[in-house]
Amino acid sequence: MLLRLCRVLNLVVLSVNTAHEVLQLQDHAFASWPALAIPWRLLYGCTDIAFTSHGAYWRGVCKIAVPPPADPARVRAYRGVREEEVAELVRKVEQQAHEGGDVVRLSELLSGFAKDVNGWIVLGVRTSGRASWRAKVDALLEESIVLLG
């Protein structure tokens, strides 16, 4: 299916067989893009996984950096992390509902939840409730947005 988002056409793949065809067999046709000036300057000559051109280097980086997204062992390994963080999120929603009345700002809570879960999984330490962690993530995101335009 071809989907237009603003001025950009996007290919949406809906079946496993088609995804295999696109991602494995026809990868060279879908993974090439022009070199962009800003990423070239900021990201070491476009050698990171997001901006490097298709080829042997890109395939090698992908094999190292991109684990299978739905690996059952990986999903099971982080079940405890997800359960604890969801319990903490529910506790915070209940607390804010009792304190503030009718309105609970879920955007703030869900943003913090995402940062905490990712922090725990990536760093291996619990980051819940650490304002310094969230501030660092926010600062990195803002800086990236400014640098990439």
UniProtKB/TrEMBL annotation:
One of its GO terms (molecular function) is iron ion binding. Keywords: Iron, Metal-binding. Coiled coil: none annotated. InterPro entries: Cyt_P450_sf. The keyword Amino-acid biosynthesis does not apply. It comes from the Eukaryota. The keyword Metal-binding applies. Belongs to the cytochrome P450 family. PANTHER family: 4-HYDROXYPHENYLACETALDEHYDE OXIME MONOOXYGENASE (PTHR47955:SF11), CYTOCHROME P450 FAMILY 71 PROTEIN (PTHR47955). This is Putative Cytochrome P450 71A6. It comes from Aegilops tauschii (Tausch's goatgrass). The lineage of its organism: Eukaryota, Viridiplantae, Streptophyta, Embryophyta, Tracheophyta.
